[in-house]
Fold these 3 entries.
Entry 1:
Amino acid sequence: MQVTEHFDVIIIGAGASGLYAASQLTRVKLGVLVLEAQNRIGGRMYTNLPQGFSAPIEGGAEFVHGDAPITLDLLKNANAQYVEMQGNTYQAHNDEIEKKDFFDSDWHVMMTKLKDLQYDMPFSQFLSTYFGDPEHETLRMNVTKFVEGYNAADITKVSAMALREEWSEEEDPAQYRIKGGYAKLYNYLAEQVKQNGGVIKLNQKVSDIRWSINDVEIAVGLNTYRSKKCLITIPVSLLRLPSIGFVPEISSITDAASRIGFGGVVKMNLEFSRPFWETEPERKFKNLQFLFTDEKIPTWWSQVPDKRPLLTGWIGGPGAQRLKQSDEELLESGIQSLANAMKYPAQKIKQHLVAWKVDQWVNNEFSSGAYSYEMVGTPEAVKVLQQSVNDTLFFAGEAIYDGPHKGTVEAALTSGADAAKRIAAL
């Protein structure tokens, strides 16, 4: 039997944007329902404790990037501790292992040319135009790996000017890791929502949104929910499909979403009986923080300053999109990648392995990727999504953000706060 429930505001998605917006709207006594398609809250934040691990792991977002005011304030309110990342960076390239940062002196030459750029273009075009000669082959290779890994971006699509803006910061900000993971933040927000009278429902996969001015009807299975306003916080990758039907259609939203890049990521967490990369005589990586390699799973990091013997493998961008393997096959690729990079037998690595978990965000039906990046024309698309549709439908998320924290939890929180403020003012 069909049941209809009525609320002031319905929020679709219980990730960072949705939960923070809900906490702000319930604070001003609006009746709020949060609908989440998954069986958990958090979205692309995913702190979990699979069997065999000694403590929770981060399957999704892990780091707090620099001075992120909303994130750090929420962690303080949640009595959650965070620690600054420390340690050494290593590169394994052409059978050589060196303790050094990712880039050499050519980086400064490239930045000088990038700062002189007069009009935007895909980053691949910038590289081929100004650094296409054989002399800069290593630079092209390194910077491509960096953009694909850190930004989860396709260099044939990502904006050269957006990368210039990101890389022009005078110094690298401190990076933090939360003790106990991002669950500390999203569980705190969910509790705030509930304490203020809001409702969060899981396993609620929205199929259709029927709307007119100040009247929204949302279909979830045989049930319907109605409200005056609706805030949609699903990843921009799902907006451009679209995974939810709008009646009437809103072609401007789908078009804007298609002009925002969205990168895939595969992440694996491997816990060992001991940190063999530091203790074994065959290969020592003293105080390892990051390891960059030429292998199939190219990027790895540890938990330093925490001594927990956990290594996290990461591949982003087109490389992640190309991987067509099961979790078990990816584990084998990860172990072999470590063995090749560290010059340490794969069989011994397996002997030390006590727990493992692979998260293929590129294949996740609820996100179809990990996080956004700017393409040529993205700023105009973001402006479209930051505007409401007839003061009735609103959109928020890390992709719908314009500022220094693009692609982060801080961006999602900020976007959710902005949307909540606009809804509360009506």
Note: Residues 327-342 form the longest helix (16 residues).
Entry 2:
Amino acid sequence: MHEMKHSSSLTERTNKAIGQALDGRKRGMMTPLLFAGPAVIASIAYMDPGNFATNIQAGSRYGYTLLWVVVMANLIAMLFQALSAKLGIVTNKNLAEMCREQFPKPVVWGMWIVSEIAAMATDLAEFLGGAIALSLLFGMPLLVGMGITAVITYVLLMVERRGFRPLELMIGGLVAIIALCYLVEMFIVPVNWAEAGMGMIMPQLPDAQALTISVGIIGATVMPHAIFLHSGLTQNRTEVKNQKERRKLLRFSNIEVIIALSVAGLVNIAMVIMASSAFHSGHSDVAEIETAYHTLTPLLGIGAAGVFLLSLIASGISSSVVGTMAGQMIMQGFVGFRIPVWVRRLVTMIPAFIVVAMGVNATDALVYSQVVLSLALPAPMIALVMFTRRRDIMGEFVNSRTTVIISVIGTVIILALNIVLLLQTFGVNIMA
């Protein structure tokens, strides 16, 4: 990530405390918090504006029916984020660097190009989310909102120069804002908990549109850049002296992944429940973030609508910061060079500004950006499964047979859904 000599005193103190925890000198209830950070940052990808768009569509059109997709996507995400963190901790290399080392050059360049397209799709979602919220809150044009989101993102990225800890705490604060907003919403909207519970465990797809939204949910949940990023966040974060310390570090990492992604999963479930409870009966045509806001105001009051916008602003800004960090890491890993952060922002921002300037419907653009992400997803998933099952790379930390089987099943599910979506896009009616 960055050399430790640049780190602030906060980062140095964290590193010292982590070293004491690993060699057994520091114990206590608060010890796991020292290791919190990488999964919290990665979890932002699971609560970005793309999730808002797909979850609002799922809840308003299909009620609680598609909640099982959110649960399944989150479980797959947990496994792959844990594997990504493990790769970084065990090899001290990130996933993109491993790909460059292990794969032929044409494959590496192909993966890099696909990953950059995915980064642009990610940026589209994040900029639009922040801009929609700002334009609704202050009545400003969408393009102006996007410009403001870009400036705020750049300022927050500068925090990273002061070491990893300040940035982790800042992102953690934004995650807390999003989670609290949805906790509040759950007390405002009327929820049928029995139906919601059934929706989480009963797989069903009512029609072809439900399939498209389901793939969008998975694209918005299990994200390519988050899988790449997590390995980079763990690769040099903590110095370990021996395999015993590495094993302990992996255990703390897995605990953090489970907690951080459980919070992200609950936020996504809450989004669908909110949309379902507020819009499904009588307002099932609500498919857009703007309409959701305007409909929430008379239905549940300005408080509910305001909380919704606050969560969207926190989501847009934080996920934009994380997206840029991932983009830098992907480029550095695949092709071995970095570009200034402002150039990176500019390159991935331009398609988002073009889409808005052309007058494309903002929420539709959000949903389709998530479909693009879902199509870019199999490559890093397959690479991660391949590397973490190889003993010559992972040594004693190689995946167990059970982990390999479950990760292959997760990858096959994503691939199958993508193939179905592609066939549907080209006019083959799967749901007939």
Note: The mean pLDDT is 81.
Entry 3:
Amino acid sequence: MLTDLLSLVEKIPQEDYPASSRVHRLKTLDAYVKRDDELGFGISGSKIRKYRSLIPELRKFSEVFVIGGPNSNHVAGIVQLLIENGISYRLFLREGYGSGINGKVIKLMTPDSQVSVVSRDDWSKVESIAQKQAGPETFVLQEGGSVPASLPGALTLPLDIVKNESEFDHIFIDAGTGLMSIALILGMAFMSKPGIVHVLLLAGSEEGFIEKLNGFHKDFEKMFDVQCPFPENFCLRFPTNAKSFGATNRALFKEIQIVAETEGFLVDPIYSGKLFYEARRLIPGLSGSKLIIHSGGAAPLFGFL
């Protein structure tokens, strides 16, 4: 089924952005780590995967409206590629724009005249606000780039995991808007791979994730004109420490320090640091082989040092 999924994904136009990263054993955990942090720094880690298929779609439009938080890894990453490809864009950012590492990077690249700041009170209506200002040749890009056009690129993650016939009983991945974790779940289900995908929901609700999974499952079958069993190979989890999105504390930074000192790589306090904290708590109680997806995004760490 690996070759089946590969042939389907390769039918969709994609950029030649990195789609393969290392897997190696950890020293302080009975697990392996997939180093998607090595796929990019300015464009953080695994996000470059979904841009492989998203950018060819965005080139079809005269402008792109990008929706995101004021310190979004996604906004900081996609803006770089929009500029590189000469694609006109406008940002619709939640209030707080210009703060934090990513906020400063966004401000460095984008004139204020191209930014619409949306208040927290109006944030639930941000897509409607953007759509009202969009023309017929405008693509409104949802938070996190979570649109069907990003799915083929995101599916390079499960393909990359199994390309060397590696199989894991447990795979841990973090989720913000959730597309990368959903692509991993769908890809593994389509390839009939065993094991459970443990998704750490750092934003949103369980109901919202399931709704997105249902939507992308339909997109998968329609896009590739195939049947895909509805996945049951996943488990949704929430942080037990620094539970709110963006929250940090001493215990979390201790985890970041442990990973840096003993494993030799950096994790951030918003996504990957929380994933490693939870994996360290859960892995001793699980049997079989385990893999942690390090999705990247270490740059925000420097805003906390």
Note: Strands lie at 23-25, 32-35, 63-68, 88-94, 115-118, 138-141, 170-175, 196-201, 234-237, 290-294.
